[in-house]
Specification:
Layout lengths: L1 H22 L3 E6 L2 E6 H57 L2 H14 L7 H12 L3 H12 L5 H15 L2 H14 L4 H13 L3 H13 L5 H19 L4 H14 L4 H13 L3 H14 L3 H8 L7 H14 L4 H13 L3 H14 L3 H14 L3 H13 L5 E4 L2 E3 L16 E3 L5 H5 L7 H6 L12 H20 L10 H7 L34
Antiparallel strand pairs: 1-2, 3-4, 3-5
């Protein structure tokens, strides 16, 4: 475009000059060696311009003749280079498609047409062809050679890192990743791998510095960087909790500023403050976290903040959390558990049943079984709630890559991935909870709940002895060979329909495992225990 503008400007200038000379006619006289030469000014100007043009044409012809050998050589060199790059492109496509034979052929052709020191992609093509054909030693040698060239150092380190991962050489992979991250922290694969390796080794300070470099280089987004920083700070605070509560408090509170809904950071910050006897501030942190998202770890930490509190004090603290988030499963379960500790079984049962109506799950029915055992000791009713717990969906837990943990961890023990744990239901029970055939209803469970048996004895020791005797009688009766059934008679038929209760394997008549047709209301309800 610039050349076109310059050319147009020169043409306009020449045209304007000729028109200016044409409007101002005159003669030009030249005396040379006694001869007088006279012509018109416009003719002289035209001749001068023509002479300049002829000189330029002659110079171009002479230059072209002088430079023709070099031009011919350059033409053939460019043609050869183009053929080499075409072969290289075809080889890379073949390597990506898994065609090892064509990739190897194109690599050899490319090396013959292009100098290897001018195009490093030839070494990459040869390494890829070797990997496809299973010659891993040759591929590693190619990658090692790439690390010596500053232009291909990062490519060679990545190839060596992947080969070390394939062989399971974790230490070698870590060294390659750290070397790449030190030279180029903007590489996502090297930075992420190095971050995970340093976290696995507990080098939280080095991991935090590397994360800052990633954030400055815009390798990770700001929100993701803040989340990862909160995870690393919480992990470091967990290690400092025993020996350095002040440092653990600072790290955990900083993590809460970066991720306000991060429950492990709130729990660690509160525990650190409890060790410093700052109960009010710790309670405030837990209350804010509970309002944001009720979590059982937060509830337990809040209720058991002071080791010297009585069961009644813990119940009050649990009810305080329930007032912040009413009609919540975690709030109801927390109050129910605290009520069991105070022997307030009516409140505990009411809260547990309310939680089961909101979300029937395993822990709710296990808590009902605990309440039944503490209040009545009725084994039939306890087994009934345990059977409901077996059919109910499991509670949420910390899950990472299929691994279920009872506490939060910064890294996945399966893959070593950072910030992998998520609070959710385990995978093996997700579909079961949705299946209609396994849907649990607290109302149906209450309708099929056996009646409470009468007390056997005044002494718990005697009750235990009676249960052991009944169990021994049951085993003996089951081991006894069954006699040949007699011929049914009229008296036997009348006895079969008699309303009088009969003992069953030594069990008492009021045992929930004994069926008494006369005592059952109409319509009859069957209860299958396990």
């Amino acid at each position: 475009m610039v050349r076109l503008v310059i050319y147009a400007f020169l043409v306009l200038a020449l045209g304007y000059g000729f028109s200016w000379l044409a409007d101002r006619p005159g003669d030009l006289s030249l005396i040379w060696e006694g001869q007088l030469y006279q012509t018109r000014l416009i003719v002289a100007a035209s001749a001068l311009i023509a002479l300049i043009a002829v000189v330029m044409i002659l110079w171009w012809l002479l230059r072209m003749i002088w430079m023709s050998p070099y031009s011919i050589t350059r033409y053939f060199r460019a043609r050869k280079r183009d053929r080499g790059y075409q072969a290289l492109s075809t080889g890379l496509i073949a390597a990506g498609a898994g065609n090892a034979l064509l990739a190897r052929k194109m690599a050899a052709r490319s090396r013959g047409l292009i100098r290897a020191d001018q195009e490093p992609l030839i070494a990459l093509l040869e390494a890829q062809a070797a990997l496809i054909e299973g010659r891993h030693d040759e591929a590693r040698a190619k990658f090692e050679a790439m690390t010596n060239d500053p232009e291909t150092r990062e490519l060679g380190l990545r190839g060596l890192y992947l080969e070390a991962k394939r062989l399971g050489a974790s230490e070698a992979a870590r060294q390659y990743a750290e070397k790449a991250a030190d030279n180029a922290p903007y590489l996502p694969w090297a930075a992420q791998a190095t971050l995970e390796y340093r976290s696995q080794a507990g080098r939280w300070d080095d991991a935090l510095r590397l994360l800052e470099q990633q954030k400055a280089g815009r390798v990770v987004e700001k929100a993701e960087a803040e989340r990862l920083r909160a995870v690393l700070l919480t992990a470091r605070a967990t290690e400092k909790l025993e020996n350095d509560p002040a440092g653990a408090r600072d790290d955990a509170t900083h993590a809460l500023k970066l991720a306000a809904d991060f429950e492990p950071a709130a729990v660690i910050a509160a525990k650190a403050l409890f060790r410093e006897d700052k109960l009010r501030k710790a309670a405030s942190i837990l209350e804010q976290a509970w309002k944001s998202a009720p979590h059982p770890d937060i509830g337990r930490t809040y209720v058991r903040a002071r080791s010297g509190d009585s069961a009644a004090d813990r119940l009050k603290r649990a009810e305080r959390l329930e007032g912040m988030r009413p009609n919540n499963v975690e709030s109801l379960l927390l109050v129910a558990q605290a009520a069991v500790d105070t022997q307030d079984f009516a409140k505990a049962r009411a809260k547990a049943e309310a939680a089961a109506r909101i979300e029937p799950r395993e822990s709710v029915f296990l808590l009902l079984a605990d309440i039944e055992e503490a209040e009545t000791g009725d084994q039939g009713r306890i087994r009934h709630w345990l059977a409901q717990a077996l059919k109910a969906p499991r509670d949420p837990a910390w899950v990472a890559d299929g691994f279920v943990s009872d506490k939060w961890l910064p890294l996945s023990p399966v893959t070593g991935r950072l910030d992998a744990f998520v609070w959710k239901a385990p995978f093996d029970h997700v579909e079961k909870a949705v299946d209609e055939s396994t849907t649990i209803s607290i109302d149906s469970a209450l309708r099929t709940l056996p009646a409470v048996r009468e007390a056997r004895s005044e002494s718990p020791a005697n009750d235990h002895r009676i249960i052991e005797l009944e169990r021994a009688a049951t085993i003996a009766e089951a081991a006894r060979p069954s006699p040949k059934p007699p011929t049914p008679t009229k008296q036997a038929a009348e006895a079969a329909i008699s309303p009088e209760p009969r003992p069953f394997f030594g069990g008492l008549p009021d045992d929930p495992g004994v069926r008494n047709p006369a005592a059952e209301p109409e319509p009859k309800t069957r209860l299958r225990l396990f």
